[in-house]
Amino acid sequence: MSTVGKVIKCKAAIAWEAGSLFSIEEVEVAPPKEHEIRVKIVATGVCRSDAHAISPSFKEGLFPVILGHEGAGIVESTGPGVTKFKPGDKVIPLYMPQCGQCKFCLSPKTNLCEKISKIKTAISDQDLMPDGTSRFTCKGKQIYHFMGTSTFSEYTVVAETSLVKIDDAAPLEKVCLIGCGFSTGYGAAINTAKVEPGSTCAVFGLGGVGLSAVMGCKVSGASRIFAIDINKDKFSLAKELGATDCLNPQDFKKPIQEVITEMNDGGVDFAIECIGNVAVMNAALECTTVGWGTCVIVGVAVGGQTIAVSPMQLIMGKKINATFFGGWKSIDSVPKLVSDYMAKKFNLDALVTYTLPFEKINKAFDLMCEGKSTRTVLVF
Predict the structure, then answer these.
(1) Which of 27, 127, 309, 325 is deepest in the core (most CB within 10 A)?
(2) pLDDT score of 116
(3) Active site residues
């Protein structure tokens, strides 16, 4: 029986309040409105940004909310005015939209788009659809969307500017990682740092994003890649993906930035921080060489923390930059990244430690927080 134009009842994971576990609930998902698409999510990754969004230290979060922003699925139906998608298309929802018309989309200098919620609100990614209403209800209550995607629901509704069609042959339980973690780390090295052939790099944090950054450094031709993490169990995979030196800061009496500086003749050319810890961000900057060292911040620090940077470091030629979605213009780039994966240009499969049924979402977050998984993918 066709579901087009009708409310769909399905399961979703709802965060009812900050600091709570996810609750699997039956939700009602309204049909898509003008320039919207309803998507059946097949697989979704679990990302640390989702944990940040429900942290009690993140004061701006709106509840109840359906999180999730690293998913892949199939178009169920389209709203009026949609011409680029049809039911049955394989797609990836995009937390970084690309409208193609705003000053940001028209500039090669950025991958931002004015449609992204943070530009509009400067506060929270827990939001409503562009018309100020929600497509989700549960137990008679309005449920907030997240990052324009809300992939922790069997069905979700997204704006046309926040969705892209991909190769029909792509395995959704793998390419869902291109929706966030892989693209962010890989692009941090390629697009933001612009790692050069023969250069030296340091990557701090070896989760899914950090290991993707390692891959980006390797494909860019880096000659030496330091991989830094306090969990030595991550080192074998890091080396498999391109790291040449794996360092645990707890193994040294000196600060890790001093260790790297001594090991590499005054510091590395590029450092990429993938944790979200302001002390590590400073260490990443300090381990780069004077003259031209570049530090790229990928991790998100919560609770209003700031980085203390000495102007003298900048005067001496060091640079600090940051990246959002790895610098990729999403609609233009995501299909190409999927094609590159299908052509085996990078090893996306290595990032998936566990594939679990969606109902195990709280277990997936435990595995992430305990450092026992690179990426856990949930399947419906």
Answers:
(1) 27
(2) 85
(3) 47, 49, 52, 69, 180
Q: Which residue type sits at 134?
A: S
Distance between CA atoms of residues 77 and 85, nearest Å: 9
| Distance (Å) of CA 96 to CA 30, 41, 87, 153, 328 | 23, 18, 23, 19, 9
pLDDT-above-90 percentage for the chain: 86
Q: What is the mean pLDDT of the chain?
A: 95
Distance, CA of 182 to CA of 135 (rounded, Å): 28
Per-residue pLDDT, averaged over 104-122, amounts to: 80
Q: Please tell me the pTM assigned to this model.
A: 0.96
pLDDT in tens, 199-233: 999 999 999 999 999 999 999 999 999 999 999 99
Whether the predicted pLDDT of 122 surpasses 50:
no
Amino acid at 84: K
The answer to whether the CB of 87 falls within 8 A of the CB of 77 is yes
